[in-house]
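User: Um, what's this?
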Amino acid sequence: MDKAFLFALLTSLIWGLAPVFEKIGLSGKIDPYTGVVIRTIPITVVSVAGLVFAGGLGSIRSVDVKSAAFVCAGGLIAGLLGQFAFYSALKSGEASLVVPVAATYPLVALVVSAIFLGEAVTLQKAAGIVLVVGGVMLLK
């Protein structure tokens, strides 16, 4: 197995575990937006501390404005808007349904990547899309 696949698998395991904690947290007296804000605080603190500890704080100065703007846009879209939508769904629905449906975002990424980045839609990718959509349809 290559490094990218192993990290993708690790991501899947981590992202599969996190909603369990989040669903438990959202079952209390907390609205989804407040949940997103509370979730973001330790991420920010630990991330900045890690950057400082690793001596990488200076690397921020070398990042070009265009790259930073696109990464910030992705963070706002996924980290704020997407997380708010996810928490809203998770608070009112079952994690076993919400998480798999929310996890169909690769379908959107595939289409957008093909249109705007010129990435190829192969037969293998198309078959994967069919399987993902079929799986979601079975959940509903």
